[in-house]
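Project standup — Tuesday

K.O.: blocked on the structure for the chain from last sprint. Re-posting the sequence here as requested.
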Amino acid sequence: MHYYGNETIMSLEQVLRLKPSEIRILEWVRTYEFLENRYGIDEPVPFFLDICCEEEGVRIRKNRITTFPDFECEEERMFPEIEEALELFRQWAEEILAKTENV
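H.V.: unblocked you, prediction finished:
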């Protein structure tokens, strides 16, 4: 886990274990653009996720990396409660992990 300004950056695996209370404290979490393969080498991941607590609610985004560091937002959702947002956030993380395991 790393901190960059007011943003916390963590692995997709760490995101799967995030608790709502941790998101309330951290306020903004993003996943790495790299994933360690079975040989211990970091390989680029074509997507990264972020979840952010805002005044209006909790915003989650699935972003596709075009040419690093550039990216496009593929999907964005807003939820009134962290628990609802976290459920979809974890689902997206699982989907990305499944895609990278099949490559």
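K.O.: great, moving the ticket to review. Residues 88 and 100 are 19 Å apart (CA to CA). The first strand starts at residue 2 and ends at 4.
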